Amino acid sequence: MHAEEKMTYEKWPAAPEKTTLEAKNKFIGFWLFLGGETTLFASLFATYLALKDKVPSTEAALAKDLFDLPLTFVATMLLLTSSLTSVYAMYHMKNFAFKKMMVWLGLTVLLGFGFLGTEVYEFSHYVHTYKHTFTSSAFGSAFYTLVGFHGAHVAFGLCWILSLMIRNSKRGLSLYNAPKFYVASLYWHFIDVVWVFIFTVVYLMGMVG
Amino acid sequence: MSTIAQKKGFGGTLWDFLTTVDHKKIAILYLIAGGFFFVVGGLEAVFIRIQLAVPNNDFVSAGAFNQIITMHGTTMIFLAAMPLLFAFMNAVMPLQIGARDVAFPFVNALGFWLFFFGGIFLNLSWFLGGAPDAGWTSYASLAIHSKGHGVDFYVLGLQIAGLGTLIGGINFLVTIINMRAPGMTYMRMPLFTWSTFVASAMILFAFPPLTVGLTLMMFDRLFGANFFEVAMGGNTVIWEHLFWIFGHPEVYILILPAFGIFSEIFAIFSRKRLFGYSSMVFATVLIGFLGFMVWAHHMFTTGLGPVANAIFAVATMAIGVPTGIKIFNWLFTMWGGSVKFTTPMYYAFGFIPSFVCGGVTGIMVATAAADYQYHDTYFVVAHFHYVIVGGVVLAILAATHLWWPKMFGTMLNETLGKITFWFFFIGFHLTFFIQHFLGLWGMPRRVFTYLPGQGFDASNMVSSIGAAFMSIGVLVLLYNIIMTQVKNVKVGNDPWGDGRTLEWAIPSPPPFYNFKQLPLVRGLDALWLEKMAGKKGMTPAEPLGDIHMPNASFIPFMISFGLFIAAFGAMYHKDYSWGLPVIILGLLVTFGSMFLRSIKDDHGFHIHKEDLVDDTEKGAKA
After folding, report:
1. Collapsed DSSP state (helix, strand, coil) of residue B487
2. Which residues in chain A (10-69) have CB-CB distances under 8 A to chain B?
3. What pLDDT band is residue B4 in, cutting at 50, 70 and 90?
4. Could you give the number of structural domains in chain A?
5. C-alpha angle with apex B151: B148 to B156, nearest 5 degrees?
6. A127 domain-assigned
7. Percentage of chain B with pLDDT > 70?
8. Which residue among A145, B127, B135, B339 is buried most deeply as judged by most CB within 10 Å?
9. What range defines the domain where residue A86 resides?
10. For residue B3, what is the enclosing H or E element?
């Protein structure tokens, strides 16, 4: 099957994300890339743990003063749900249901923006209420770098999914763009998994430990 | 699209190389750029040896000396050794597995341009207020307090170049996993392909920690963060860890392809199957794995404590086992073979004793207690030059001679090649052997001069004379390359006459689609098997058909160029008000180009089989 071929429901293969050679390459290449991203975040987590609560003076806010679990709970729910909606989107992609896929992707994007909104609010809250900034201490630098790297990934993922949706809105699914949607959703799941670790290591352990 | 070569002017050729996605042309780009930086790093080495030739010398100032040693190390590792190995991986690996191109030709070009612009950015520091001067390891305790913009050039330049290496590694991995010809199972892959595979996997996991380390350093120096500011709660040891979690795998990323190159050479010129093929594969994978377990042996004197030091010491020594397996396999490959002494074989012969010397001193410095004596002395300098020059550089020179005909269709002169070898090999041992003793006698590394009468004078002079020998060797090689290209005597598929693997089954240089029909691989050393069965070439695995090829693109150049612009903005944004707009402009160019790539469909094109048949008939007449 060729990537340019006009597709119908009957012709649509079971695994459209890896039917052509290009798609297979993209599929494996992206999994490998996520392996590299894992070491990237592992390094950031290690740095954060080494610098957690390392501040220059006794007045500076520590992790246990800063974090607020209700807000983090909302952010977590938004992001985890967006992972679920992207699963539904891929389910419809595999069934050649383009419109339904777009609806679920749209929901994913909305939830993603919701998450980003809570994060922006959270950061500005820390800066204004606690004077906890990127430059105020090693703890501040490490916190904003780790959580900010994740936030930047979310923002990039939103731009990515949105451009895919707009670019393909008029022409439906093909074996050329199906792998693109699939890989973007893989990326979205990865961001979600990283958040699970941030939630545990930064927020839960910050409140308890 | 016709496959017949067209005459092009200089502009056409330049545009061709700026936009190419062909792995063979990208290999040539890597070879030229890596060769250029090798000469630059070599000149820096010559300046170091002139300065140290006599005591109390003032050839360069102490500050300039720091810049020169920093740039020598950084250039040689990141901008010479890596790209030169990437040149051969690009040129040969797809041919060895019987592929028409790499998995992601566009990404391949992007990787090259990122490396290129990163390297240019780093070297522009010489003209813009001074080069980085905190050593190639750029320890945070020094780097944070380095004046001027030198270290900023290091941080931003390596960040850009490192991204290129990372995506290059992913590309090679996918190529080997997905693009092997019919019958090319993993355990039939040539050793150079295997070592490319393992080195690429190491790149994938080793480069992100460097990315993080460089980002933290950039944030500290340019954006007011406090990762390494102890007064603000920071910790400089974090940099040491991140750097060496990358840095130690990096030396195996360099040496494994070198091992692969020598494995090919020993088999070809002993005219015998590589001894212990499966144990070679096993040893390669094991070295790749253990390479991640030993980084703290660079930090024995940091004060991690006796338990950590003991664990890392034992893990380090364990690497001697798979390496020893390899050494014996190479010796046994020659045993009973019909050895032919060509230039690549000279290098392979010279490599074994040289590298074993480096391995033995490696075990010595791995002994944590003893390392307190060796640390930061010339003994360590001697050790890592024995493994890097005695291993990697000899392999690069050997591969240059071995695969030159495959890349350019003409053979380097054998006599000049052997002259290069003798100058380089003798010069190398003259330079670095004595440095073991200088270190044991107490000469610290990274000092810009020393006093007379301490017993260092004669030995340093010997070392400097050796550097002159190595330089003559490189000059002879450059002369050889120019003369060879001027004469341009064309050669056939298998110019050495003893080729064993698939790259020797196709013309030199190969047509841009590599294989007209994908070959059927029946076993290890696929071409050799067919030769032994009395056949002239490979049996095709498919009927003649249309070939799908990727389109050329200028976007990789633009993506990389955008980062190059943004790096200038980032560096000067605290000094000048134009900094921030320039960062934004650069990132717009990069992300805009990525966006363009994303929304513009690129289906590639097909070469029709009628054109392929045409080609053969024309070739037969010529």
Report:
1. helix
2. 21, 24-25, 28-29, 32-33, 35-37, 39-40, 43-44, 46-47, 50-51, 54-56
3. very low
4. 1
5. 120
6. yes
7. 97
8. A145
9. 74-209
10. none
